Amino acid sequence: MSRMLPRYRVYLLVLATLLLTGCQNLAPRATGDLGLVIERATGSVQIIDTGSRSAVARIDGLGDLSHASVVYSRDERYAYVFGRDGGLTKVDMLLQRIDKRIIQSGNSIGGAISQDGSLIAVSNYEPGGVKVFDAQTLDLVADIPAVGENGKRSKVVGLVDAPQKRFVFSLYDSDEIWVADMRQSDKPEITRYRDVGEQPYDALITAEGRFYIAGLFGEDGLALLDLWQPQAGVKRILGDYGRGEEKLPVYKMPHLEGWAMAGNYALVPAVGGHEVLVIERENWQLVKRIPVHSQPIFVMASPDKRSVWVNFAHPDNDTIQVIDVATLEVVDTLKPGPAVLHMEFTPRGEEVWVSVRDANRIRVYDVYTRREITSIEMESPSGIFLTNRAHRIGL
Amino acid sequence: MSRMLPRYRVYLLVLATLLLTGCQNLAPRATGDLGLVIERATGSVQIIDTGSRSAVARIDGLGDLSHASVVYSRDERYAYVFGRDGGLTKVDMLLQRIDKRIIQSGNSIGGAISQDGSLIAVSNYEPGGVKVFDAQTLDLVADIPAVGENGKRSKVVGLVDAPQKRFVFSLYDSDEIWVADMRQSDKPEITRYRDVGEQPYDALITAEGRFYIAGLFGEDGLALLDLWQPQAGVKRILGDYGRGEEKLPVYKMPHLEGWAMAGNYALVPAVGGHEVLVIERENWQLVKRIPVHSQPIFVMASPDKRSVWVNFAHPDNDTIQVIDVATLEVVDTLKPGPAVLHMEFTPRGEEVWVSVRDANRIRVYDVYTRREITSIEMESPSGIFLTNRAHRIGL
């Protein structure tokens, strides 16, 4: 018998190992209705499930997550979290753990994933440039120092992905926009556009990936690059968009990703002013100013393009206003609570998830009745990023 | 020792059972890059993986799949396959098997999933009407007999989902469009639009869920319902769209889901003619006719809206033509092989997957170089449906 014991101990061991490794994750699940919420204060993220409207798991150890953003792998399994401290963290949404984490620079400000999902690009302040990584391994594939016309390294902002495996970004300190063609991943082909305007500070790309628009901190107006005719160069649009002659005090420069494209209109936050500007996309002319509660930050269109939801800068950031796109009027004002930082619509637009940092809550609203459906406890939540972003250009 | 044997046999047994049941599916995977291909001849579907560009598994026993279509659950785990024989099959994309299957009518023609993912609607020819099922259990939730103004039951066509938990569909035999408000799932609230035009035979809803457009078999022109102003009723547009006075021979009425919405234009297949029509979305006026190879069937815009891909009716269905949206000219002609039945773009538009039925192949093309990247063997493939449809309105 004593000869037997070790033997069936082995089976016990194998069994235990199996249970501890694989089988805890036996229950198969898909990730199409999952997302991540950034918990800045604790350097953690929470996986949320918009199907059951619940928090699924907390993952710690992601470092400094102020101004953090997220992109997803094309199979919607992995989230890439870009931290302020230069950390790039690959989170496994299925196994609910960090798959890989690297510190890729001293100070970074967001990133993007290539159209085919093979490359992750990160834009850095310090040292200024873009680093490109293999999406699977996080191995460095290309390093693009942002040395501007002035010979100095510049902070990089407004990095987005564009069709044909390109990344587009702006150089804050040298007033340039660069397009990096990554079709040969290790040999980026860079096209440089100079004198695009003073201090581009952020940018967006339209949903189909055609128009790249950079906001300018140093002057009024915006820089527009039409990627369908790159040879035409960068044009200046909306000359009166910005802080204006008298340089209004701006508590927070609005995000350009927060522009709402609805039908023929773009609804954009006025810089400094208490207005949402309505712009005709055909010719980029201002057609209307909609007075709102305070300085708008995010101006986001629901997936059905019928309503646009607006949050505001400190100290008026306890409020959301809703604009009806059909009438271009404010039709509702909500008070989710202190420090409404972000809003994310469910993919087909029936709900909007709102982070209320200082209430330590995510609030879920019915987009049509605008009633609160439920709320979920979080640690100072900021950004909310759902996995369906995996399927979209420029997000 | 003899006393020990049975005991560790038990462990062996447990171990074996574990391995055979759960652990075969241990390797966790996400479904965001999966899809289904309809194999009509064999009544089977194949799960495809656009990440590894491969076929993952074949699932049999789905009945008559001619003209079959597919929608996905909001978590992208389950596919709902609508068969011609009235079969509604719920396929588990993770466990690669049929989860549930019912025969819900004698003869059906497609379906839709509600905005919130809770309801599956199927449109039936025989008996004419719409049946609504619980997306999880496939239990019948509501039965909507399509009894038209003429008192007869009508074939139902052009069923789509619309925002605010509505389904919109057309009554072929009584020239009506119905909007079913499902906010109270078991008590559908029906709004009926009459005399919309002779024999609506198919329909589409625009990506944001605002415009429902039905094609008319019995006369020229199209029926347009603006869901933002339902009280305005159904308007007739494009009076000259159709088979025309001389009633051209039509080998196959083009699909309306195959309309390409690109920027301010809709590119639509001319009925009978060898043309793609370019329509100004602002006013639904015809602005250009693009001559093409033969009678177009699907006219599909790439996700970046830069190119539109067109396939054709028998006997000229070995060809695909590509239209450049910037110039509205045909820029390429491909010959994938006999019976090109369907095209599906990867979510961010780097590739297009093409079913070539009589070559028993799916061909994968680079959307930009238009070169074939690879091809995959299939049994007479027809429709291709990727899981990212889960996140879109009207698909």
TrEMBL record, chains A, B:
> Per its UniProt entry, which superkingdom is the organism in?
Bacteria
Any Pfam family:
Cytochrom_D1
Q: Which CDD domains match?
A: 8prop_hemeD1_NirF (cd20778)
Q: Give the signal peptide, or none.
A: none
Name it: Protein NirF
Species whose genome carries this gene: Thiohalophilus thiocyanatoxydans
